Amino acid sequence: MKQDKISILKQYLPEQSASIIATWIDGYACEFKISKTRNTKLGDYRPPFRGSRHRISVNYNLNPYAFLITTVHEFAHLVTWNAHQSRVKPHGTEWKNTFKRMMLPFFELDIFPLDVKKAVVSYLQNPAASSCADKDLYKTLKRYDAPKEDILHVEDVVENQHFTLPNGREFKKLNKIRTRFRCLEVKTGRMYLFNPLAEVKLVS
Question: In what order do the strands lie in the sheet with 191-194?
Answer without folding.
Answer: 152-153, 199-202, 162-164, 170-177, 180-185, 191-194
